[in-house]
Specification:
About 5% of the residues lie in helices and about 40% in strands. It has one helix spanning about 5-15; strands spanning about 25, 35, 40-45, 65-70, 75-80, 85-90, 105, 115-120, 120, 130, 135-145, 145-155, 165-175, 180-185, 190-195, 195-200. Strands 1, 2, 14, 15 and 16 form a five-stranded antiparallel β-sheet that branches. Strands 6-5-4-3-9 form a five-stranded antiparallel β-sheet, with no helix packed on it. It has a four-stranded antiparallel β-sheet with strand order 10-11-12-13. The radius of gyration is 17 Å and the shape is globular. It starts with a helix and ends in a 5-residue tail after the last strand.
């Protein structure tokens, strides 16, 4: 049985519609990138790109990259442009999924070949749930097993502030299983991965 406070909080989560992520975040894809059988994702950094990071100083470490591991192989997306820049349909069976390694990694591809990328998703692991500037993420389950992703700013307490002022319901995983949610280590990218697709937001400067 839920307490009156818990019931009120659950009702508040259920009543909150999906909203666009606020500035400075912007979607990378028109909606999402379909990835059938998605198992997990990880972040890396492009060694050759230097977009403006939005702070006027540039980003000497390059664009964020998102590596996707699925039943159909491995893929690599540029997290600023959304471009799929590398694809491996037939990875080595020993490295096809991250569960074969103690640190949950898979070999990089394309511009990050020769490195290994930590993968979060079906087999475990996790991504950053906070980012510079006071941003945070929460996953709530008002109607299990459907999961909702909340983007927070400031206090990080969606119980207190009005929806759209300090917290935003940005994703409702009502059609596929949620695999992982998180920010890139740079804090410039926000990712939501389900068993069927990848959704990205960025606050990095445009090329």
């Amino acid at each position: 049985m839920l307490t009156p406070y818990q019931q009120a909080l659950r009702d508040r989560m259920l009543a909150a519609p999906v909203l666009p992520a606020p500035e400075p975040w912007r979607p990378v894809f028109a909606s999402c990138a379909p990835v059938g059988g998605l198992l997990g994702i990880g972040f890396a950094t492009h060694p050759d790109s230097h977009p403006d990071s939005g702070n006027g100083r540039g980003n000497d470490s390059g664009n964020d990259l998102v590596m996707v591991v699925s039943h159909d192989g491995h893929g690599l997306f540029d997290a600023v442009t959304g471009e799929k820049i590398a694809r491996e349909r037939d990875p080595d069976p020993e490295d096809a999924t991250p569960d074969s390694t103690a640190d949950l990694t898979c070999p990089g591809l394309g511009p990050i070949a020769g490195t290994r990328v930590r993968i979060a998703g079906l087999y475990g692991g996790g991504l950053h749930l906070t980012a510079f500037g006071g941003w945070g993420l929460e996953v709530v389950h008002p109607v299990w097993p459907h999961e909702r992703v909340l983007l927070t700013h400031g206090s990080g307490m969606p119980h207190r502030e009005p929806h759209g002022e300090g917290w935003w319901h940005i994703f409702n995983s009502h059609y596929s299983e949620l695999r992982t949610v998180g920010f890139s280590p740079s804090g410039h990218t926000l990712a939501v991965a389900t068993s069927s697709d990848l959704t990205l937001w960025t606050r990095a400067g445009r090329r």
